[in-house]
Design goal:
With about 190 residues, the protein is mostly helical. The protein has 5 helices and 5 strands, in the order ββαααααβββ. A hairpin with a 2-residue loop joins strand 1 (about 10) and strand 2 (about 15-20). The chain is globular.
């Protein structure tokens, strides 16, 4: 299996619309819509949810980037060292690198603070979000598929993914052990 199209939908000068970004935005929209309905079903105000969402998405996005930069980044094989030498690149999100764990951590803290300040039931909001999160996660993962990210170990199963050499990480870059024909677990 191989992604059927280019990760870039279209480019206009230096600006590119990527499938990853479009799918992440779709995931946020779909997940938020479902969570909003669930908030209402549980007896809370949808307006409180939408207000909270504004104050949660910004820290979640910042956290997703910072987690990547400080913890996950394989940038040039140097990880955080690369960003410490080139701090302006921390802001260059278009070069890649966000991580869902950072979004969960920063977004969760922001949600807790927002609910505490507004005296809203944190657990009811978390319950409502938990209903929508798996679908949002599934939508977003298609962006990872198109970018050839987050694949598993080598496999001989028929649904194995072909990963281009430039997208392989760590030991899978050894083409004597893992030739171009190697397929990876989704």
């Amino acid at each position: 299996m191989y992604p059927p199209f280019d990760p870039i939908i279209f480019e206009f000068g230096p600006i590119a619309l990527r499938w990853y970004g479009l799918l992440m935005a779709t995931a946020v929209f779909v997940g938020s819509t479902i969570a909003s309905r669930e908030v209402t079903r549980r007896g809370q105000k949808a307006d409180d949810f939408w207000d909270m969402l504004f104050w949660v998405l910004i820290p979640a996005f910042i956290g997703a980037r910072l987690y990547y930069v400080f913890i996950q980044s394989p940038r040039n094989g140097n990880g955080i060292g690369h960003y410490l030498q080139n701090p302006i690149e921390i802001l260059q999100i278009w070069t890649g690198g966000i991580h869902i764990f950072g979004a969960f951590i920063f977004g969760g803290i922001a949600l807790w603070l927002y609910c505490r300040i507004r005296r809203l039931p944190t657990l009811k909001f978390l319950d409502s979000i938990a209903i929508a999160l798996p679908l949002a996660q599934a939508i977003g993962r298609w962006g990872n598929f198109i970018n050839q990210e987050l694949y598993g170990p080598p496999t001989t199963l028929p649904w194995g993914l072909r990963i281009d050499p430039e997208h392989r990480i760590g030991p899978y870059q050894d083409f004597n052990t893992y030739p171009d024909s190697t397929r990876f677990h989704p």
